Amino acid sequence: MTSLDTRPALVHAPSATDGEWWRHAVIYQVYPRSFADGSGDGIGDLPGITSRLPHLAELGVDAVWLSPFYRSPQADAGYDVADYRAVDPLFGTLDDFDALLLRAHDLGLRVIVDLVPNHTSDEHVWFEAAMAAGPGSAERERYLFREGRGPAGELPPNNWQSIFGGPAWTRVADGQWYLHLFDSRQPDLNWEHPEVRSEFEDVLRFWLDRGVDGFRIDVAHGMVKEPGLPDWDGHVSMIEGSDDAASPEDAVSGAGNQGPMFDQDGVHEIYRAWNRVLAQYAGDRALVAEAWVEPLSRLARYVRPDEMQQAFNFAFLATLWDAPALRSVIEASYVTADSVGAPTTWVLSNHDVVRHASRLGLAEAGSRPNGIGHGDEQPDEELGLRRARAATLLMLGLPGSAYLYQGEELGLPDHTALPDQLRQDPAFFRTGGAERGRDGCRVPLPWAADEAGFGFSPTGVTWLPQPASWAAYALDAQRGVAGSTYETYRGALALRRAEHLGTGGLTWDNAFGDEVIAFENRDVLVVANLGADPVELPVGLTVLASSGDLPDATTLPGDTTIWARRA
Ligand code: GLC
């Protein structure tokens, strides 16, 4: 880890202009089934989202990313797509999508949609054709069907495990096996097949023609597999640390081998082709990589000038609540992104991880259990929220593009006591309950404290129950209330825009000691005290924003962040 004293002060230089929107945008993730329900069936939908878009405009974000709403049997909450060009009736119609896009653009919000190219649903016509056509057929070539090992082919073709637990292979009635890195209902596509490549370019065009501003690419590091699909004894997972790093930047983000199923060099050819597709469209369209790749220097390869525009910075999300560790990751993020001329991104929560308000309330603050349930360590809700607000104000003070996950502007914690019988995440079932899974961060949003289902749907029905404590988090309980989490987010987003912090620079200020992350971005000083003890502030600061109450003008309490202007 780099020491505080030897660090060069200027880490990232500010830009003269605002340039492309995705270099500095704050992008809000909408998880359609849990945002707002227009129909009353208890599951959020596109008309529900459209009706609530003014909330996002008022909040002050620049863009919206919609998780999948395509036709799907919902075996993995829509990340199992049966038809890439159709809206699932659960969420509405294509007309509803067009209306949503129109309204968003009217409100000045860009819209990014999710593309899931690593696998389809088992109900996709291609997979149904592959099952019907049998071994050796052209139809099977679009997926990864193989003969099994063992005398009667009774063993899987290799030893790969599914990310959701259990083997990554399922055997079909005629004896062949097919690969699925995720659920058995999510067969992996064969990206060596030219038809697969041309089909997805066509899907991109379908949504670009409708006017979307970009795509979030699901499992962007997974599509190409090492030839021969060799056995691999490593653990199949997301980010894991390693001591064997090639550079100081890589030392903080791990040097892990992701195995023969991830981050293969061949995947970049796909993104170069997609970059060319987007370039044929007017406007400023963007591709965003969901690539759980380490170290950061490998991630930077996805955002080279002729590939994608952004990649999620999961190294930041995965770092514990520890000032030296976070400083190192922040610095490494700029060094590696700057090396390819790409913007850095920041993210603390999404639909796959325990919300940061809950993670930061755990004994090991910031650790990442895969879900929290009955009998598990319960987070300290108050401490978690205090730190979450401090973490967000730190994040929004950083130049680059930032992602918010729906509900974090309300300070929502996970539902950490969901009854197991209500769980729906395949990860819960495939691990026999050893992992609680991701349902706790996917609970329908509370809009109105006094309404049934907290105003999520007109009938009060919600597909997962909301904790009773969420009344205090409802939007209408916070709107207009000074110091509420919602007003803190709103104020920070307005200031970030007015001060051009997204295109600003980062210069460390190391005067506050080891427990503090402090830097200047343009002429705003950001000071985050991650320690438990108060820290003394210089005299004469004008505080512009604060994540919590300040006792006086020169004391910054623990777990609190401020933005300030020097005298
Ligand atoms: C991504 C999605 C996650 C999904 C998985 C398989 O990681 O974010 O929700 O389960 O891909 O598509």
TrEMBL record:
Q: Does the keyword Glycoprotein apply?
A: yes
Q: What SMART domains does the entry give?
A: Aamy (SM00642)
**Sorted alphabetically, which Pfam families does this protein's record hold?**
Alpha-amylase
The molecular function terms in GO held by this entry are: alpha-amylase activity
The UniProt record lists the Glycosyl hydrolase family 13 catalytic domain at 29-442
> Which keywords has UniProt assigned to this entry?
Glycoprotein, Hydrolase
Q: State the family it belongs to.
A: Belongs to the glycosyl hydrolase 13 family.
* Protein name listed in UniProt: Glycoside hydrolase family 13 protein
